[in-house]
Amino acid sequence: MAGTEQESLDDLPPSAKLVFKVLEYNGPLTQKGIVQESMLSARTVRYALERLEGIGVVDEDVYFADARQNLYQLTEKPKAAVDGGSEACTAEQ
Asked: Would you say 44 and 15 are in contact if contact means Cβ atoms under 8 Å apart?
């Protein structure tokens, strides 16, 4: 991960995978909502969101109901890009 290859969802810690699944099942949530749904600490959720944003699977947007918070949602990427391309490889064979 020192710049040799791009990181995928499979390479992330379990907390980041849990946050990904929470967003996948519940749709867009604030950080506070993710903390409540995942039962992780706020610090762990912040770190997981940073990692997910780093690989481009989560978008951060303004939460208009309370502009002090951000709304997090999954990006509109094909599933093959999220799981490391394993489906794309099997489809070519």
From this structure: yes
Strands (E) located in the chain: 29-30, 58-62, 70-74
Residue 84 pLDDT > 70: no
pLDDT tens profile 53-64: 999 999 999 989
| Residue 69 near residue 63, CB atoms below 8 Å | yes
Domains defined along the chain, listed by start = 9-92 (1.10.10.10)
Task: Return the bridge partners of 29, or none.
Answer: 72
Rounded alpha-carbon distances, angstroms, from residue 3 to 6, 7, 86: 7, 9, 21
Q: Would you state the structure tokens that stand for residue 9, as one six-digit string? A: 């969802």
List the one residue out of 35, 55, 57 whose CA is nearest residue 44.
Answer: 35
* In the predicted structure, residue 34 carries a pLDDT above the cut 90: yes
pTM of full prediction above 0.85: no
